[in-house]
Amino acid sequence: MAQFLLKRLLQVILVMFVISAFCFGIQDSLGDPTRELAAMSMSDEERENLRDTLGLNDPLLVQYGRFVARAAQGDLGNSYFFKEPALTVILKKLPATLELAFVASIIIITISIPLGVFCAIRPRHWFAKLTMAVSVIGISIPVFLTALGLIFIFSITLGWMPSFGRGEIVHVWGYWSTNFVSVDGIAHIIMPSIALSSIMLPLFIRLVRAEMLEVLSSEYVKFARAKGLGSLTVYFKHALKNTMLPVITVGGVQIGIMVAYTILTESVFQWPGMGFMFLEAVNRSDIPLITAYIMFVGFLFVIVNTLVDLLYGLVNPMVDLVSGK
Amino acid sequence: MKNRFLLTACLVMASLLSFTTANAKDLRLAYDADPVTLDIHEQLSGGMLQLAHMSFDPLIRWTKDLAFENRLATSYKRLNPTTVRFNLRKGVKFHSGNPMTAADFKWTFDRLKVSPDFKGIFTNFTELNVIDDHTIDLVTSGPYPLVLHTSTYIFPMDSKFYTGTDANGNDKGAIVKNGASFASTNMSGTGPFKITSREQGIKIVFERFDGYWDKKSPGNVDRIIFTPIKDEQTRVAALLSGDVDFIAPVSPNDFGQIKAASNAELITLPGTRIITLQMNQKRKKELQDQRVRMAIVHAVNNDAIVKKIMKGFATTAGQMSPAGYLGYNPKLKPRFDLKLAKQLMKDAGYEDGFSVTMMAPNNRYVNDDKIAQAVAAMLSKINIKVDLQTMPKAQYWPAFDDRAADIMMIGWHSDTEDSANFYEFLAMTPDQSTGMGVYNSGNYSSDYVDTTTMAANRETDSAKRAEMLQAIEAKIYQDAGFIPLHWQNLAWAARKGVDVDPIVNALNFPYLGDLVVQ
């Protein structure tokens, strides 16, 4: 176990190195940050001075060396726009994104499992066919279209739902302020999380259905039926349990991906989370923030993968974590 | 019985609550971005000037018809060719409670002279002399016609408030671009609104300043909740669903939706930002031929671009200066004549055409990439094959600095609201030592334009000056120095009952202190 974690730690460090080197390599094509920091009419001389104070005129290797030295002490540089350490900016935006992803995951889990199971048990039922057809369409509609559609129907036409932002949030602890305490906060999180879940929902319905179908055709289910067990017991006690194993594995990774993929949903709903922050950072050539965000997401992926592997090891003791066999 | 009592109590409470909210006038404002900083000298941009007009006051300001209106100055007169005397308003207080005096103007002026963004505007000013507590003299290095124009940029800052050192031992008055400073997070001005809370990128709350000097202002807004909403469709949706009261900017694509809505109003004004294309004579020898440039100008149907792509939300241009500017020359009409264009190409010996590269941003100006595509298609009619590349502004400006294509797009708004600013940046011969022609990527060069612009900057007789500026405009027109497209219009939208029309102006900073909300 300790050996496994150590191995992962080394992997994290390696991943961070590769990502940061990559970010520095493409720095020049990210644009000139002084353009966003200063007036169009600013003289060339002043612009050069500004580039000097930002350290942008040093050779790339010198800049990278300086970055690595500071990063080793946990300092990823200051965001040009927020004028704060980039990591602080990200941590401040993280709760909004996590809450959004959390609600979206709840929606996905509560809808996809019953629907997926139903479609597997009654594949010829009209409702199962409808669900499958709708899920094909669902997969192909872009998130921003879903989001704008929701805003158009529920905010503009019906006037039921707020159209943007997080609304009234209540401070909990540290950088964490939550949407879940006030009615206004809950009203604000509903549409963005539906929009966000709309990408993964069809995928999960299909995944649950496919896994369930496979399990249902396996020998032990046939045997359970032959034993004369009731169909409910067969479906839910024997089949569903085994269906969930691969679903957990895929689901864990997918939800990790979702946190990184909130960009579109967040920008349509002006949701003050990490994804929106990243998009804005790219628009503003806020290089330290871009670099820190990409590194943070890379870190998140490694962590999620590690957790999934650990979970897998717990569920299936035959998996050997260290050698990966 | 008990239930009924509770119900009545609730109803009374609810009506009381709605009564209080109806009484205090809130304005929920949504712009595409919020100010980067609270230090009004840190960055010269539209957003920062908007903030300056909310929380500070200038000496004088522009009215809707581009005349001057006194604010913190009560009167001014020219003492001699290089000095203008301003009498200052008495009884004005800063948000901190400090009284405003001439010393604050001196402090502010000195700070502007060292601000990397603003010093350019103040190059011709040598000093600000304090005569007494409520009188100042602005002195220029030579006769300078734009003293009043420039005075619209002098928003006095509270010198006592910004003097000293902060908790970290740093100077409170320092202008810091690459990090936080006292001035970028604290504010004390004389303006109608002070900031009570600020979460960058999320929300700023402004409250009306009790001690505001302008008691005659009709403005009745007590609180402004400023939210940035980046996505233009979301911004419109927020207005139409009643989540915000006032939005800007508004894209022409959303005009129909707002006009059709029963609860919202659209307000537009002709703007002063010129959108142009520059033809690089250094990179491309064909473009050195005046006939070829003339042919290109005649081949571009900018009227069609305004009608089709801009949906009428722009004014077709034949020159740089918009109507209302001194340099605006009414004789210089937009030119489109395909037949003449073909003839000119033939005369120049390029009947079979040639190929050029072209670059334009795709997120800087309204419909910038579509305009560039249209121009490329129009040039193919005179056999000029255009290799067009559009890119986000973050990548575009470094490319522009490198003069990376034969034809490049640039839009320009004159910081001084005066024609000479256009020529200095876009038309004068590029010169590193003087800093002129910084954005003249075409390397258009004319002695006449260079010398006359400099002469106009020393001419204080505005009739003579207008003649000079209009002559420059005519010269560039004759030389076909650039491809004029249009002046971008401005648009705002508000819910019905927010009386936006009287407070907006072509400079695009609505005077929110004077806003009346029903």
What do you see in this structure?
- The complex is a heterodimer of chains A (325) and B (518).
- With 325 residues, chain A is mostly helical.
- Chain A has helices at residues 2-25, 34-37, 44-54, 60-71, 86-121, 126-140, 143-157, 183-216, 219-226, 231-260, 263-268, 274-283, 287-315; strands at residues 170-173, 176-178.
- Chain A has a two-stranded antiparallel ribbon.
- In chain A, strand 1 and strand 2 form a beta hairpin.
- The longest helix of chain A has 36 residues, at 86-121.
- The mean pLDDT of chain A is 85.
- Chain B has 15 helices and 19 strands.
- In chain B, strands 1, 8, 9, 10, 11, 12, 13, 14, 15, 16 and 17 form an eleven-stranded mixed β-sheet that branches. In chain B, strands 4-5-7-6 form a four-stranded antiparallel β-sheet, with helices on one face.
- In chain B, strand 4 and strand 5 form a beta hairpin.
- Chain B is globular, with a radius of gyration of 25 Å.
- In chain B, 48% of the residues are buried.
- Mean pLDDT of chain B is 91; it is low at 9-22.
The portion of residues assigned to helices of chain B is 25-40%
Poorly predicted runs of chain A are none
End-to-end separation of chain A: 14 Å
Integer-rounded radius of gyration of chain B: 25 Å
Sheet-strand content of chain B, in percent, reads 15-25%
The neighbouring-strand order within the major sheet of chain A is 1-2
The share of residues in helices of chain A is over 70%
Low-confidence stretches of chain B: 9-22
Biggest sheet of chain B: strands, sense, closure? 11 strands, mixed
Regarding quaternary structure, what we see is heterodimer
Give a short account of the largest sheet of chain A: 2 strands, antiparallel
The number of E-state strands of chain B comes to 19
